[in-house]
From TrEMBL:
Heme-copper oxidase subunit III family profile domain mapped to chain residues: 1-192
Domain of life, per lineage: Bacteria
Broad class of the protein's primary localization: membrane
Coiled coil: none
Similarity section: Belongs to the cytochrome c oxidase subunit 3 family.
Taxonomic path: Bacteria, Bacillati, Actinomycetota, Actinomycetes, Micrococcales
Protein name, UniProt field: cytochrome-c oxidase
Organism (species): Arthrobacter ginkgonis
């Protein structure tokens, strides 16, 4: 039931992001010259590296899910013996990659504000910060979820299906956030 509820909730989140995409395309169609000037200020290689960081976090997240499904919460070998890592270690790595993504995005925001692209500067700034900002908030929510799942794994006397289900539905959310970012990245940074 938890998995089904999560998928239904993610469907509503999909509608939320669809509305943000509609806003972005509507404003872009109304002011194509503004988009050409302002989008030239984006640092595409920098954003691409940040995208690779976020996408790689989906792989580490899935490794954690595999360990959760095996009911293996923590590592049984040495720290650098990745084959023996448990869910916690993979989720901590996922958390760190997600935190790097949010930090780099915040740095990108400061650089864009320095170049005159702010939330209140024009339609481009508003749409850019609203779409990427709401995505960033969703990433931050996912980071909190990872901390809760990791904490639950340490608190549980016996790591069982209840804890594993929490890890699995958290991964649904994380993968959703990653797919949304791939779409945002393609539209904002590449679509001309």
């Amino acid at each position: 039931m938890v998995s089904v509820g999560t998928v239904v909730w993610l469907s509503s989140e999909l509608m939320f992001f669809a509305a943000l995409f509609a806003m972005y395309f509507t404003l872009r169609a109304a002011a194509p010259d503004l988009w050409a000037v302002e989008s030239a200020k984006l640092n595409v290689p920098f954003a691409l590296i940040n995208t690779i960081v976020l996408v790689s976090s989906s792989f580490t997240c899935q490794m954690g899910v595999f360990r959760a499904e095996d009911l293996k919460p923590r590592r049984t070998g040495g720290l650098f013996n990745f084959k023996e890592w448990g869910m916690v270690e993979w989720f901590i790595l996922t958390f760190l990659l997600g935190a790097i993504f949010v930090s780099v995005q915040a740095y990108e925001y400061t650089e864009l504000v320095h170049h005159g692209v702010a939330l209140n500067s024009n339609a481009y700034g508003s749409s850019f910060y609203m779409t990427t900002g709401f995505h960033g908030l969703h990433v931050a929510g996912g980071l909190i979820a990872f901390l809760l799942v990791i904490g639950r794994a340490y608190i549980a006397r016996n790591f069982g299906h209840f804890e594993a289900t929490s890890a699995i539905v958290t991964s649904y959310y994380w993968h959703f956030v990653d797919v949304v970012w791939i779409a945002l990245f393609a539209i904002i940074y590449f679509l001309k």
